[in-house]
Design goal:
It contains 10 helices and 7 strands. With about 220 residues, it is α/β, with parallel strands linked by helices. It folds into 2 domains: about 70 residues, no CATH class; about 120 residues, TIM Barrel (Alpha-Beta Barrel), CATH 3.20.20. Strands 3-4-5-6-7 form a 5-stranded mixed beta sheet. A two-stranded antiparallel sheet has the order 1-2. The structure holds iron/sulfur cluster.
């Protein structure tokens, strides 16, 4: 690890999540008021590392636009379930749209929330589509032998601790013979790379369960 990465790794060893606009000192009072209207409907979440990447002098800073609420989110258009995922939900927390692929929604939290997220409905209080209990989903996959790859998603699976992610999810999937590929849908490398860099047990788990015949991506 080079010196500056090591320094950053130390600095953000314990990442601080920010969920209130009052925690963002760069905002003007007016901006905060406007954004609060959005936040009342669509939850805001970021962290001190990702915030440190924003160039606040640039009004169109792309990182800021990904993460900071925008009043245009309140324009009424389209559906909250933009991909009609309800139609493909077969059991609690499992979607099966394409023959060989199943999605397991294992976590409703992300390391930060993208304003453009097509699943932002999952982060609303009344939503119950995600479940940490994947037993029904595993049973469905076992009974549908055409499923040879499973995408772990949510929310972000890598926000879970390795102890909640490794044995209870990855190992259980590896026990199903016809599942060849496990994919992890994550934005943790961008939002909080130190989650990976500072956790040797996560890398160990990948080494154990990703083989030439059965890979984890
Ligand atoms: S990381 Fe993915 S699931 Fe989470 S808010 Fe961003 S796009 Fe949505």
């Amino acid at each position: 690890m080079n010196v500056s990465l090591k320094h950053l790794s130390e600095k953000f060893k314990k990442i601080k999540y920010l969920t209130k606009l009052e925690q963002i000192p760069q905002l003007t009072e007016k901006e905060r008021e406007e954004m609060q209207k959005v936040n009342d409907r669509f939850v805001f979440r970021t962290n001190d590392y990702y915030q440190s990447l924003i160039d606040w002098k640039d009004p169109n800073d792309p990182i800021k636009r990904i993460i900071m609420p925008d009043v245009e989110e309140l324009n009424e258009w389209g559906e909250l379930d933009a991909s009609n995922e309800e139609k493909y939900t077969k059991v609690h927390g499992l979607e099966h749209k394409y023959t060989s692929t199943a999605l397991l929604l294992v976590n409703e939290v992300c390391a930060a929330y993208c304003r453009f997220c097509f699943r932002k409905r999952l982060f609303m209080n009344e939503n119950d589509e995600v479940t940490k209990d994947i037993s029904e989903g595993l049973e469905y996959i076992k009974n549908n032998k055409e499923i040879n790859n499973v995408l772990l998603t949510g929310g972000d699976p890598l926000v879970l601790s390795t102890s909640k992610f490794g044995k209870p999810i990855i190992q259980k999937l590896r026990e199903i013979e016809h599942v060849k590929i496990i994919r992890i849908g994550t934005k943790v490398p961008a939002f909080n790379p130190f989650r990976i860099l500072n956790d040797p047990s996560l890398l160990e788990m990948f080494r154990k369960y990703s083989t030439n015949e059965k890979k984890i991506y």
